[in-house]
Amino acid sequence: MTTAPAGALAYEVFVNEAPPQEGVLPNGEPKRFSPEASTLIYGREDAVLTDPPLTTDQARALGDWVAAKGRNVTDIFITHGHGDHWFAAGPLAERFGARVVASEGTIAQMHANAATRPLLWDKLYTGIPPTPVTAETVPDNRLTLEDHELVIVEMGATDSDDTTVLHVPDLDLVVAGDVIYNGVHMYLVQPAIVGGFGPWRQAIDSVEALGPRHIVCGHQNRQLDDDAARTIAETRRYLDDADELLQTESTALDFFNAKVERYPNHLGRTILWIGASVLYGAREHPDEDIRRIVLASWL
Ligand SMILES: [Zn+2]
Question: Does the predicted model carry a pTM greater than 0.70?
Fold first, then answer.
């Protein structure tokens, strides 16, 4: 069991294995979802868990890890509405008797994601538990963990609408969901919907303004550290590169190959391929419903 000094908080990160998936990418490698990170923020007795994963198997693995920490999990916090950040909230909330918490905007997105589940997630992955939306808001977007305040900060449109991060001032920590990435390809679909990377860049500035020393990203390579300055700089550069490659590369496949060449060690090429397909699909078929383009790119 890990122990924290009296009155202090600590945190640890669990990165789940991606669920099995069928199909191959254009370069022949098997499709595979990105690693998903959950954070346990804990004091002497209580703990808050963030971003439960997608499937029942993943929830069991995460839950066993959490249980070994020997804390009472009071709340499970969800950064944004994408299914890979909360579809397995139910079994974990039940196992630990925890409340599920999110912002009002995120809760609306959770309902939308639950509605599209049969069209998307269930076609790709087996073993997703029932996904009723049980999340509730908290006053002023603030949670309390023992004597410490955890603040939900609205970030707007990043990799989806109505995203948030969790700021833990007493740990100099931001749990960034999908606003910041760490060694994993970014999901570039939302910029095709909102017309560019501007809102995402503003959100990165907002995270930086919180002054964290540590950032846990929703998708991160477990071998990398949590240095805030590095992850912020790399996330900005990834978007700058995407802007540049959208000018120089004429097809989704060219974009995909150029990104892989620039980021040979990044995980999550399946998400890169989906993003490239949507960005170029929206460009080539401006009159088509973007939701259909997104769906087709996933399946
Ligand atoms: Zn995600």
Answer: yes
Ligand 1 centre distance from Cα of residue 169 (Å)? 24
State how far the alpha carbon of 186 is from the alpha carbons of 35, 58, 241, in Å.
12, 21, 12
How far, in Å, from the CA of 86 to the mean position of ligand 1? 10
For 78-95, what is each residue's pLDDT tens digit?
Answer: 999 999 999 999 999 999
Rounded to the nearest angstrom, the distance between the alpha carbon of 219 and the centre of ligand 1 is 6
CA of 188 to the centre of ligand 1 (A): 11
5 C-alpha to center of ligand 1: Å? 33
Closest CA to 137 of 176, 96, 178, 100: 100
**Strand order in 72-77's β-sheet?**
10-16, 36-42, 46-50, 72-77, 99-101
Q: Are 98 and 128 in contact (CB under 8 A)?
A: no
Q: How confident is the model at residue 5 (pLDDT cuts 50, 70, 90)?
A: low
CA 252 from chain centre, in angstroms, equals 23
What is the distance in A from the centroid of ligand 1 to the CA of 84?
6
Span 27-81, pLDDT tens digits? 999 999 999 999 999 999 999 999 999 999 999 999 999 999 999 999 999 999 9
Rounded distance from Cα 162 to ligand 1 centre (Å): 13
pLDDT of 212 > 50? The answer is yes
